[in-house]
Design a protein that fits this description.
The chain is of the alpha+beta class. The chain folds into two domains: 1-30, no CATH class; 39-319, Ribonuclease Z/Hydroxyacylglutathione hydrolase-like (Metallo-beta-lactamase, Chain A, 4-Layer Sandwich). It contains nine helices and 18 strands. It has helices at residues 7-12, 14-23, 73-82, 123-130, 147-150, 170-177, 187-196, 253-256, 268-285; strands at 40-45, 48-53, 56-61, 89-94, 97-100, 105-108, 139-142, 154-155, 158-159, 165-169, 204-207, 212-214, 217-221, 230-236, 239-243, 289-290, 299-305, 308-313. A seven-stranded mixed beta sheet has the order 1-2-5-6-7-10-11. A hairpin with a 2-residue loop joins strand 14 and strand 15. The radius of gyration is 24 Å and the shape is globular. The termini are far apart. Bound molecules: zinc ion.
Length: 320
């Protein structure tokens, strides 16, 4: 039986201290658990409920020359350092978004899928933690056809979302499914579009600028990153949030220097123009936005600063 000593006995007698030491259970050192990120962030938005989901991340060399390829490397490195970021390595995360309108469960982009494990491709797991199954998704909206956005449509070669219809940009679909994209730098995405988008073509609605996905969600042409890249206005009960897809790809590089060339952008000048136009709108209208590669939970605001913009991550504004 353990010997119980009061504080006075412990202080007075050295024998007491020895007894207390003997009585203490031998504790194993707590194991190291490894890094951990949040899987989801959910908030109510008007009548809608919006969940950002963490599909994972990639770790790459850079930001230069992926960002600022038309700049001097030291200027890009300097900007990273000024913003408390490493200058030679960076992380790019992936954040699909679920919008529950009350009538439909709408998923924007599908993550990397099982082809990109282990650091990414975790949408299904994040959805499960968020309380959803893939079968519950009514509508899948694709911002553009890059692998990190359409990769998760299939898992183990099978369509993951059994009951969903699809929405994609008309120009985007026409571009990637065209035989001209076979071979060369567009070949991999062309093949993936054939494998993941073509089988669901009959269930897909192809949108142009200004057309509705469902009531309260409207597509906006945001070309440049890809030839038919689409972004989306989401509105409920007078509240607005913008879903930007890949109009910007890095919360520092893309915002502070919107015109810097980005290797991920297919049409570099057009991508820069689209980026500035949208960032300007977000700053002027003071509305929140979510964008696929912003740091998780991938929701924030934009402020004008000098010739560019700065990212203001969301804190509690949307929780109240
Ligand atoms: Zn992307």
């Amino acid at each position: 039986m353990p010997i119980k000593l009061n504080r006075r006995q412990l202080i007075i007698g050295s024998s007491g201290l020895a007894a207390a030491t003997i009585a203490a259970p031998a504790l194993a050192k707590a194991p190291m658990m490894g890094g951990q990120r949040p899987n989801l962030y959910r908030f109510k938005f008007g009548k809608f409920e919006i969940t950002t989901l963490n599909d994972g991340a990639f770790y790459l060399n850079g930001p230069f020359p992926i960002f600022g390829a038309d700049q001097f490397p030291e200027d890009v490195e300097e900007l990273a350092k000024k913003n408390h970021l490493p200058s030679k390595r960076f992380e790019i995360g992936f954040a699909p978004v679920l919008v529950n309108t009350g009538k439909e469960l709408v998923l924007f982009d599908t993550g990397n899928g099982d082809r990109r494990n282990p650091t990414a491709g975790h949408l299904k797991r994040a959805m499960k933690i968020a309380g959803y199954t893939p079968d519950q998704v009514d509508v899948i909206v694709i911002s553009h056809y890059h692998a990190d956005h359409i990769g998760g449509i299939k898992e183990g070669g099978e369509i993951l979302f059994k009951n969903a219809r699809y929405v994609a940009g008309e120009a985007e679909n026409n571009f990637w499914l065209h035989p001209d994209q076979a071979g060369g730098s567009t070949d991999a995405t062309h093949k993936l579009a054939l494998a993941h988008m073509k089988p669901v073509a009959e269930k897909t609605t192809f949108l142009k600028d200004g057309q509705d996905v469902v009531s309260g969600i409207t597509a906006m042409a945001a070309f440049g990153h890809t030839p038919g890249h689409m972004a989306f206005h989401i509105e409920s009960e007078g509240k607005r949030i913008f879903l930007g897809g890949d109009f910007c790809n890095h919360y520092v590089m893309s915002l502070q220097n919107p015109e810097w060339h980005v290797s991920f952008d297919m049409e570099k000048d057009q991508a820069g123009k689209t980026r500035r136009k949208i960032l300007d709108m977000l700053a002027v209208d003071k509305i929140p936005f979510t964008s696929y590669h912003m740091p998780f939970p991938a929701v924030g605001y934009v402020e004008k600063k000098d010739e560019g913009f700065v990212y203001v991550p969301v804190s509690y504004q949307l929780n109240l």
